[in-house]
Amino acid sequence: MDAFHLLDANSKGWITSPELYDALQELGHHAHKELVFMFVRHFDRDNDGKLLYSDFCDAFSPKSNQQSVILGQRRAYFIHNHYHRLDFFSYETRDLFFRLFKLYFQHEETAELLRNSLQRRPYFNIHDAFAACDADKNGMISREELRELMIEYGIHLTELELTLLIDRYDKNHDGRISYSEFMDELMPRSAHHAR
């Protein structure tokens, strides 16, 4: 909660990509507006252009259930002790927090380059790609289908890697990837491609 409040300057419980961009600038961390937009779009579960506190938790909580529970139970120290938001956290903690943001932005930039490359390939079709992954043709890609597909192509994922891959696509967190979630992940996300 402290980390979210550091960015949510007006304590609304949500932030837009321009607000996140401004907050990062204010805190001395410069990012390209397009990458901030793509970050918000990726974690904005209901696609309303707002990163809710719950969306933020999805982005910054550990994937390990045990670690996530421990972090979720921590009380908001800086808010409850009335610190000014610009004084939250030690230098080392702030540095780690913003380094994670930087990694997210780099990851989104790489993913966007790949999405754009796929769109330029004349024979690539999202529907066909989804159909190739949906082995049982039920309109959803399960964890097991994804695992089998990766093995078929010589990619052996650990359980954590498989979880992270599914989380990348599975916006509603039901453990399966729908066609719309699949399409949303593979379509370019930059602002000039946004719906």
From TrEMBL:
The keyword Cytoplasm appears for this protein: no
SUPFAM superfamilies: EF-hand (SSF47473)
KW Acyltransferase (keyword) present: no
Highest taxon of the lineage: Eukaryota
Keywords from the named record: Calcium, Repeat
GO molecular function list: calcium ion binding
SMART domains membership: EFh
Domain EF-hand: 1-30, 31-66, 121-156, 157-192
Pfam families xref list: EF-hand_7
The protein's name in its UniProt record: EF-hand domain-containing protein
Species this protein is from: Halteria grandinella
